[in-house]
Amino acid sequence: MPPSVKLVSIGTALPPYLIDQRDAALASHKAFSSRFGDFERLAKVFESSGISRRYGVRPIDWYLNTSGWPAKNTAFIEGASALFVDAATRALEVAQLAASDVDTVVTVSSTGIATPSLEARVFETMGFREDIERVPVFGLGCAGGVSGLSIASRLAASRPGSVVLLVAVETCTLAFRLDKLTKANIVATALFGDGAAACIVKAGEYGLAEIDMSGQHTWPDTLDIMGWSVDPEGLGVIFDRAIPPFAQGNLRPAIKTILSRSNLALHDIDRFACHPGGAKVIDALESALKLDRGTLDHERQVLREYGNMSSPTALFVLERVIAAGQPQRTLLTAMGPGFTLSCVSLKAMA
Question: Which of 5, 132, 144, 272 has the most neighbouring CB atoms within 10 Å?
C-alpha cells in the first residue's frame, strides 16, 4: 500500500502593524458616527466581537486616508507576498526542508488579485525550483485554509514522496470601506485581521498527523450569505444573511453526511477544530455540535488575539490544537462563500 499522507509542519505569520480593538473602535467612530445614524448601536460589535487585537499590513491611519482599488490591491500584493514568505519559511524550517525541496505549492487567497499569482512573485525570494508546480486557488474565503489542506493532501497522495507546500494568506483589513454605510461593513471593520499560515504535506512515514479524510458540503440558494462586491473603491464585504443561526441549524447534518462517506460518525471525532468567524459563530458551532460551552477554547483564543483572518485562521487553531496534545482524531472545519462547509480529518500519530 502507498504511504498515507501526513501533515508534516505548520508555520504562521502576522503583518507588522498591531491594531488594538479600542483604537479600531475609535477610528471607526471618527469615520462613521457623523454620517451613519445607526452607527452607535452597531458599534457595540467592537466590544462583543471577542477580539482584543488584530494585525494589518498597513498602519491604522492608512486605512482612513487611502481609497481606490489600485492602492488597496498594491497593498495586497506587497503585504501578502511578505506574509507568504514568512509563513512558508517557518513551515519549511520546522519540517527541516529547503524551498528547493518543494515540488508543488498551493496558494490560497481571496482578498486581492495578483497575476502572476503570489507564489510566482516570491519565486526567487523563496528559492523554489524552476520545475515547481503552482496551484493558485481563489474565492474560497474563510473555508480556503481547510479546502487548501484537502487539495494539498490529494496532490501529495497522487505522488508519494513529493513535498507539497500549502500557503493560505489574506489581507482582510484592506476591505475596510469608509464609503459603505452598512451593517455588514461595520461588522467587518470590527472582525477582520490579516495573516498567513503554511503547511508542509507529504505522503510518507513521519509527520504531526495523518490526513485520512476530507469533504465538502455546499448548500443551494446561499450565495447571499457571504462574499465580496467589487467596484472602483475595492472589495466590499457581503453579509446578507446571519451566519450564526444558519450554522446552528445546518452544520451538524452536513458534517454527519461528510463523515458518513468515509464510514465515520460524529462520535468518532475527539476534537472539533473550527474556523472562529466571530464570537457568536463560535457559540453557534458549540450549540450545533452539542459541545459544552467553552469547549472551543483555542478558537476563542485565536479570535481574541488575531481576529478573523479568513482562510488561515483555522490553521492557526489547528496549530494550537496539535501543540496542546492532539486527540486521536481531529476534524478541522470551516465555512465560506458558496455557502460551503469544508472538513479535513486528522489522526494523531501513534
Answer: 144
Which residue in 142, 172, 274, 343 is the catalytic one? 142
SS3 percent helix, strand, coil of the chain, rounded to 5, is 40, 25, 35
For the segment 58-103, what is each residue's pLDDT rounded down to a tens digit? 999 999 888 889 999 999 999 999 999 999 999 999 999 999 999 9
pTM assigned to the model: 0.95
104 vs 131: CA distance, rounded Å: 9
CA 165, 136, 73, 62 torsion-angle sign: negative
CB 165 within 8 A of CB 88: yes
Phi-psi region of 139 (alpha: psi -120 to 50; beta: other; left: phi over 0): left
Residue-level length of the chain: 350
* Phi, psi dihedrals of residue 200, rounded to the nearest 5°: -100, 125
Q: Report the DSSP pairing between strands 209-218 and 5-13.
A: antiparallel
What are the CA-CA distances from residue 135 to residues 138, 165, 202 (Å)? 10, 10, 16
Q: Note if 199 is an active site residue.
A: no
Contact 112, 170 (CB under 8 A): no
Neighbours of 30 (CB within 10 A): 10
Q: Give the span between the Cα atoms of 36 and 215, in whole angstroms.
A: 42
Residue where the block lists cell 498594491? 74
Q: Are 331 and 269 in contact (CB under 8 A)?
A: yes
pLDDT digits (tens, 9 = 90+) for 195-204: 999 999 999 8
Q: If you ran DSSP here, which 8-state letter would residue 25 be given?
A: H
**Bridge partners, 7 (sequence order):** 201, 209
Q: Quick one: three-class SS letters along 284-324?
A: HHHHHCCCCCCCCHHHHHHHHHHCECCCCHHHHHHHHHHHC
Burial class (CB in 10 A: 0-12, 13-18, 19+), 97: middle
